[in-house]
Amino acid sequence: MSLTQALSSALSGLQVNQAGIALVAANVANADTPGYTRKVMDQVATGTSTSIGVRVSDIQREIDLYIQRQLRIENAGASYADTRARMYSQLQEIYGQPGSDTSLEAVYNGFTTALQVLSTSPDDPGARTGVINSAQLLAQQLNQLSSSIQSQRANAELAISDAVNKANEAMKQIASLNQQIAASTPGDAATAALLDNRDAYIDQLSQLMDINVISSDRNQVTIFTNSGTQLVGSQAAQLSFDAVGTMTPQSQWNADPALRGVGTITLIPPAGTPVDLIQNRAIRSGTIAAYLQMRDQDLVQAQTQIDALAAAMAQALSNKAVTSTPVNPAPQAGFDIDTAGLLAGNTITINYTDTATNTPHTITLVRVDDPGALPLPDTATATANDIVFGIDFSGGMASVITQINAALAGTGMTASNPGGTTLEILDDGAANTVNVDGVSGVATETSLSGGISQFPLFTDGTAPYTGAITATGSQLTGLAARIAVNPLVAADPSNLIVYQPGTPAGDSTRPDFIYQQLTAAAQTFSPTSGIGTVTAPFIGSIPTYLRQFISQQGEAASSANNLKQGQDVVLNSLQQRFNRASGVNVDEEMANLLTLQNSYAANARVLSAVKDMLDTLVQM
Amino acid sequence: MSISSIGAQSQLIMKQLVQMRAQFDDLQRQLGSGRKSATYAGLGIDRGVTVSLNSQLSAIKSYDDTIQNVMARINLMNTALGNMIDISSQVKAAMVQANGVSNGSGAEVAQQTGLNSLDQLLALLNARAGDRYLFSGRATDTPPVETLDHILNGNGSRAGLKQLISERNQADLGADGRGRLTIGSGGPNIVQIDEQATTFGFKLGSITTNVTGATTLGPTGSPASLSIDFSAAVLNPGQTVTVRLNLPDGTTENLTLTATADSSPGANEFTIGATPGQTASNFQTALTTSIERLGASALTAASAVAASNEFFNADAGNPPQRVGGAPPFFAATNLVAGTTANTVIWYTGESGSDPARSTAMARIDQSLSVSYGARANEEAIRNLVQNVATLAAVTISPTNPNGVALSSELDQRIAVNIGNTGLQTISDIETDLASAQTSLQAAKGRHQQAYATLSDFLQQIDGVSNEDVGAQLLTLQTRMQASLQITSMLYQTSLVNYI
Q: Which of B139, B363, B496 is opposite residue A586, by nearest beta carbon?
């Protein structure tokens, strides 16, 4: 009977409208729920031989997959930029407010001012103490800077640890959701909720690191790192991070676990061998990459810069030239130089000309006391274009000569020991393929009153700073953390004046020297600090170097911040576009509600009409 | 800022509102602190310049402090030097005055003047700027000169000027007071004068005569001797024999004896004898008396000047030359170097071979230094102290028959010697200092100008203009109000409110 058919059609209409209203209610309720995507209902007509009705075919998520993919990439980039900007802004804080009394430059200027006062009144005990105090302040400032930088690195280490835990949690959830989704019916509301949930975890993971999400059948996703290592499939891999408790300037990342002083991220797949993600450079973006970049590059560079400053301050005052004397045992010619005063890290420079091509060359011999440090790279000295040889002095002069001759092999020059600790470098005489242009040395003065202006005002703890290189690293590393005013000078400030027994109190020779060295004398700075390059290292006075690296740090912080702002704009606009597609628009829902209400009323009206007709039929 | 709709975007709206708030706070900070940024990052491209500018400003400030300090020192030195010049002219004037006085009180007055002046001079040389001695060369923590008492009277076992003068006096005069000359007969009718083999006493210069027939010989030999032979002489009263004597201080005395017929000759006269032998004998007696008188006056004065020269022309590295041998020194033959243990060294500051001015250098600019050091033993100052001290050290007894002559000889020498170094005068030192002062003034002017320029530059980079920030604050305020209002309107204009 067709009336019954109408009844059942109207009934199905009522049911579908009710489901629709329920969906509107759910959408409105979740309008502000993060990760919630707007759900829409698909309905289809049902027809049997006896009636035509309507039913809900499935519940769909409104989502633009392309934008979602873009969003995830930008998510990683934005959190990378955000984290770096935040850490850089913390790093900026430690250099102090520009021009304020506590800024590094102001403390340095305070020191040179005190030196100028001392130079004018060398006899004044107040001026002497003034220099010691301001020098100590400067040393402490550097110690403080170093410890701030290291504590930032330690913070980064902890943050990586947290991020790794968060990533592990997200990967575990994604894997578990993958399994649940596989088991659930596609197209129903529960599945849609699970998908939302999984997307939220993937978004979380994409903030931590750059990932590649591949969708496959049955709503499954597989997640890879950008270098192709699988993180999540039906099972989640595990990331492990062995954070270190204490961070020092010597703590550096190294592929060799024995030399590694900081934590590394290892991926432990459900099956297979663990992979070091840092070594593979698998993480290139996201929070984790930002922290790694800060911990292993940017903050290390900031440390190297203040280490170089500390070293320059120490060496400017303690490095003395060792002169050579020309010798001429015809037909050969060359130079004699005394190696007695050389300490580990001190150098002898041989300048020679290859007469065939008329090209000048430089060889730098560096005294080394730990054979484990050999061979030295050419970058061991800041000097440009020199070839560096580490010479182990622990075996006596005969061994030194053998090593130097090995270093000079092929140049035509020969080394010999005419007696004592003298080193003689000669050209090849009659063959005349090479000319020795000069031999000079640089040694560290360790005496406070050796008759010359040079003296160790700044020391590495209590030991002199010579720049020694050992198997475990260079004395330069972390010098800023250890630099101190020589305790002997601090205890007796007259050492600032007395450069030899009997120096009169008003003799300004040494104060003038200190002032000159610390304000104007040019030094060569190693390019490892990010200023200058290997072929053209930065050569300038200490204040200019200070200016350079403060400027460089400011620039880096500023560009990190600019990058963050740029990323924010990109992310915001993507987020808006994503929200426009997937977000709940309450107005739209209300409009739907009106439609559904009308439709419900119409169906109900049909029901009521059918009832009236049936009543009429019964009363006949 | 774009607000498309309400819903999931509300957090974006919030974020933007928060950003505006932060901007607002930063502008407020700028207004309060007057600084554009709290970090180098916020200073923009010129951040490196601010570091350089701060360093330059700090250097200029310290140069200025130095200039002020050094100015004060140079002013003090100039005052002291000016006073020294005054003392120098006072003493000179006093010497000229005393010269005319023919009794012992003149000597006393002169000596008193010497003592007072020396006292003042030493006080001036010990002048300090703060704790810094200005005339000690590099030894600015040590007083440059000994005390008056030590200089004159010695210090314990260390001899002072008076002792040196006395020793030298003994050595120069000899036991017989004849200035280490032996006067005797060189043969019949011959009077001969022999020097002794010593560096002390009179040295024979020449002998000349206008006596007809008298022959003079010498000086010849070493030690030198000279003689006059009266054998063929035909003497007339008024004829003279002149012996020229060199004194230890480099002066010379002409001792002229005049022949007289009078049997009781006056001073510097000899009686013409009946025979050449008598004449020679008379001449020898008169010569001896005259030399003794000259010894007690001119030689004593010259000896004191020489001793004083040795005493003052010395420092700790080169102690004064003293008379060799043991007291009494009548037979002393040579000078030997004293030691710091047995002789007071008047100058206790630093002495070196370099110019005194270079003992204090002040850097007043990146590449400019001025030298303004001084040593109390510089030629000009030493000369003044030495002469004044000689005057103070020579005691002339009122009962000394040769007192007036000695005083006169001494005064003459001092009047001549003060300021007569031939090398340097105190005014020369003043001139050096004045040129340093000129450099200081010029540098100060340059610094003021540079400081102003650099500060301005720094202000442009680092500073903020209140008007600018104020205007920005107002604009931002308006924008924030508008945003908030529109946001609130958007929230209200939802369909929810209309169905």
A: B496
- The contacts found for B175-179 with CB under 8 angstroms, 24 or more apart, are B175/B328, B175/B330, B175/B331, B176/B292, B177/B292, B177/B295, B177/B296, B178/B288, B178/B291, B178/B292, B178/B295, B179/B245, B179/B291, B179/B294, B179/B295, B179/B299
Residues 6+ apart with CB under 8 A from A170: A201, A202, A204, A205, A208
Report, as an integer, the average pLDDT of B140-146: 91
Report d(CA B137, CA B135) in Å as an integer: 6
Torsion sign, CA atoms B12, B14, B18, B24: positive
pLDDT at B6: 42
Q: Does A92 touch chain B (CB under 8 A)?
A: yes
Is the pLDDT assigned to residue A459 strictly greater than 70? yes
Across the interface, whether the CB atoms of B50 and A99 are under 8 A apart is answered: yes
How many Cβ atoms from other residues are within 10 Å of residue A423's Cβ? Answer: 26
* E-state strands within A510-610: 523-525, 538-540
Helix and strand numbers (H, E) in chain A are 13, 23
Selecting from A105, A561, A585 the residue whose C-beta is nearest the C-beta of B55 gives: A105
SS3 B4: coil
- Among A344, A307, A525, which Cα is nearest to A442's? A344
**Residue A270 structure tokens:** 């459900």
A157: which residues sit within 8 A by CB, 6+ positions away? A243, A244, A247, A262, A263, A291, A295
ipTM of this complex > 0.85? Answer: no
pLDDT digits (tens, 9 = 90+) for A575-589: 888 888 888 888 888
The amino acid that residue B307 corresponds to is: A
Taking 90 as the threshold, does the pLDDT of residue B408 lie above it?
no
- Which pTM does this prediction carry? 0.84
Inter-chain CB proximity B132 and A576 less than 8 Å: no
B434 Cβ contact list (under 8 Å, min separation 6)? B78
Show residues of chain B in contact with A92, CB under 8 Å.
39-41
Amino acid type, A620? M
Å between B167 CA and nearest CA of chain A:
33
Express each pLDDT in A387-419 by its tens digit: 999 999 888 899 999 999 999 988 889 999 998
| DSSP conformation class of A427 | -
Bridge partners of residue B155, in order along the sequence: B158
In this complex, which of A32, A561, A579 lies closest to B41 when CB atoms are compared?
A: A561
User: What average pLDDT score do residues B418-434 get?
Assistant: 85
